Every structure is written in structure tokens, then in C-alpha cells.
Amino acid sequence: MLLLAATFEVFVRDMAGVVARAAVASADEVARIPTGILRTAWKRVFDSIARLDLPQNTRTQDIQQIVGDAEARSGAVFAFLRGNTEQDIYADLVQHDVNLRTQEINRLFSISGVSDVCGLVSQEQNVADHFQADRANATGRELGEFIDRFIEQRNSIAHSLTSASSVGANEVSNHIETFRVFATALCVVLEQRFPPAGRRRVGPETTTP
Q1: How far from 87 is each of 15, 34, 77, 78, 109, CA to CA, in Å?
Q2: Nearest Cα to 19, choosing from 208, 206, 205, 195?
Q3: Rounded Cα distance, 138 and 120, in Å
Q4: pLDDT for 134-165, tens place per residue?
Q5: pLDDT score recorded for residue 195
Q6: pLDDT at 207 over 70
Q7: Of the candidates 193, 42, 26, which has an alpha carbon nearest to the alpha carbon of residue 121?
Q8: Alpha carbons 41 and 93: distance in angstroms, whole number
Q9: Confidence (pLDDT) at 52
Q10: Are 199 and 2 spatial neighbours (Cβ–Cβ below 8 Å)?
Q11: Do the Cβ atoms of 118 and 140 come closer than 8 Å?
Q12: CB of 18 within 8 A of CB of 202?
């Protein structure tokens, strides 16, 4: 369960990162880049710099390294906002400080202008078939409850000192299949929003759960 949760989190972050890059690539000028990307890149880079622990001796090599790193990261954001969108500002962009429940997944993609991505995923036919739901809103509720319940299970197992919170092999297999369905539908939804070049898929295949 912990490995599955980690794989799912990496997959979602990777996909959100790919979408952010696609949103930037599809904009012909900074003014057309989603505001969420610009604001988040600005805030995240300076938040991360503020968390750096400066050594007491300002003449040491350590502080030179810290200052150099901070200058490079802030300089990249400055250049990006001035119009050089080739700058790599993505390291701090797609991060989450809380568990990847449905609301947090939606937030990661909303940065790039994709609203309610889990709701969009739930409208795909393979998701409806998987949950055997007869209405789109019912599918969305089922998907959201599955993701949030899975995160609760993961947290319970991670914080437990016994095996009482573990789950059986069949349940894990069912979780894996549901995440495969989610991943496939997510790729479809995002490729519709940001068509990939040629026939190349938008998602990093190696991280699909």
C-alpha cells in the first residue's frame, strides 16, 4: 500500500508537471500563460529560499553555495516573467504540502488552468464502467471517495506499529486496477486539452501505476 501510494503520488506530480510545461509551450507570450503558474512559481521559489538555513559563518563555502543556488533559482523566475519562457522554473512549481486527496489533485492541475481534473476524469467512459455508475455525478462521487479513502488507509498503515491496519492482496489488486483506470482516463483528458505532437502520449509511461 505504501509503495502504491508513493507511485500514485509520483505519477500525479509528473503529470501535473507535464501539463504545466504544455500550458507554457502553448502560450505565445507570458501574458497568455495561466496566472496560476506565474503566481505559484514566484511564491514557491521564494518560499524555498526562505527555508534555507544560513550558516553562522558567512565566509564559509557553504553560504557561497546557498547564495549561488538562491541566485540561480530567483534569476530563472525573473527571466521567465520577463518573457524567457525557456527558463526551468518547474522544480518548485508542482509540489504539495498535504496528502494527494481529490482536492489537492485538483489544485495541482488548476495551476495550469485545468479546473476540476478529477471531475473531468470521472466523465470518461472507462471510469464509469469501472465503478458501474449510471450517472456522471455518481461516478465523480465514487472516484473521489475511493481516492480519499485510499489516502486514509495509507496514512493509517504508515502510522501503525502493528499489522492490524494492513489490507489483503485482493484489495491491493483492486486498488491497482482502479488507479490504472484513473491514469488512462487522466491521459485522455489532458491530451484533449493539450494535444501532443504526433501520436506521442502526454503521460510519462514509466510512472503510470
Answers
A1: 19, 16, 7, 9, 20
A2: 195
A3: 13
A4: 776 789 999 999 999 999 999 988 887 555 55
A5: 86
A6: no
A7: 193
A8: 5
A9: 84
A10: no
A11: yes
A12: yes
The pTM for the full model equals 0.84
Return the half-sphere exposure (C-beta side, CA atoms, 13 A cut-off) of residue 63: 7
In angstroms, the CA 37 to CA 26 distance is 13
Largest CA distance in the chain: 67
Radius of gyration, alpha carbons of the chain: 20
pLDDT tens-digit series, residues 85-113: 999 998 888 888 889 999 999 999 999 99
Name the grid cell of 174: 483492486
Residue 93 grid coordinates = 512549481
- Check if the beta carbon of residue 167 is closer than 8 Å to that of residue 1: yes
For residue 34, pLDDT over 50 is answered with: yes
Q: Which residues of 81-100 are buried (b: 16+ CB within 10 A; e: fewer)?
A: beeebebebbebbbeeeebb
